[in-house]
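Deviation from plan, reported transparently: adenosine monophosphate complex.
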Amino acid sequence: MSSATVLVINAGSSTIKYQLLDPATAEAIAGGIVERIGEDMGLVEHRYNGVEHSENIHIGDHGDGLREVLRLFEAHGPHLADANIVAVGHRVVQGGSVFPHPTLIDDHVLEQIRDLIPLAPLHNPGHVKGIEVARELFADVPHVAIFDTSFFQTLPEAAYTYALPRELAAQHSIRRYGFHGTSHQYVSEQAAMLLGRDYKDIKQIVAHLGSGASISAVKNGEAVETSMGLTPLEGLVMGTRTGDMDPAIVLHLQREAGMSADEVNTVLNKQSGLKGLCGENDFRELLRMIDEGNHEATVAFDVYVHRLVKYVGSYMAVLGGLPDVITFTAGVGENNALIRERVAQALAGFGVRIDPEVNNVRSKEARVVSAPDSTVTIAVIPTNEELAIARQTMDLIGQ
Ligand code: AMP
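Because the crystal trials were delayed, the predicted structure below was used instead.
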């Protein structure tokens, strides 16, 4: 193995996902996940050469976790000494207004990421730990932070400002940050390539529909709107998150149901969305329930689609007209033909037409699923956040 590779690390609160990639060829050479850090029994999984190894093992902290990753590479390949790792790219969920671009990590930058913990209490602490340990274990190469929020730093002031008292909002750094930015950027660039159009010259809507879901409007290569806000709770209906709702519901639950702030937080983030509506957050299961005639599952699906259609319509207005392309990505967007069909049906009055046959073909490739006479191209593009992180890392270190 001789070409330059990047190790991408996504350290969460109790997990570390990692992937070794060749950014030039887009090849994912090896990767895996360390789960349940700090619990009695953890789990590690490592994939290389089409073989997957998994083990149950106690993992005390993030240091143990990353040392375990090194052991897995040595035990199951490839040997890191031969892997020609030129940099480590770290996914960081919240970059606040501080980081509009990928950034080379030094002690000061690490401190700034730590300072952003109040804005991302679930994510940034894990990132900080992951970066600290990785900088020790991979001391000879540069480390780069890639922020989920950076792509949305171009939002116009009218789009990122909440109508709260100015000083209060400023004092607590309250604004729309947006998340999934690495995915929205990667997918919108790929969509322009798929259409054979100049990225700086088209209007796009990107729907990232995974267990978390967000939608963005991208005009002439810059994000102009996005559905997630101060946190990844706002916007579309998600697997377990509410997305948009009247903020007074929070107060109502506190006053009338006697819930604490933490309890409301758990309800809104973990017990709502599709799961709250029908007890199921996995889309495959949801579709099965709909097929069996389950009313709650049918309503959950309708609520999900209704919210999505509302956003698409409003983003058309924000873009000042029909987009050139609407792209679906992530687990649900890439695999669920029915969602794409329902959105297209809702937009039929705008001349949007899906090709039902093409739309129903399962594929891992980027593809167009609209009919030739559709006013808007509908595309499906698999997202690849690890590759995007590896490429941005490589760009920054100038290789
Ligand atoms: P992600 O967060 O991008 O990994 O997406 C996870 C979501 O994608 C889950 O809700 C899954 O139910 C959904 N998903 C994954 N595969 C499929 C599939 N083949 N058909 C429908 N939904 C899927």
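The chain has a mean pLDDT of 96. We consider this an acceptable substitute for the interim report.
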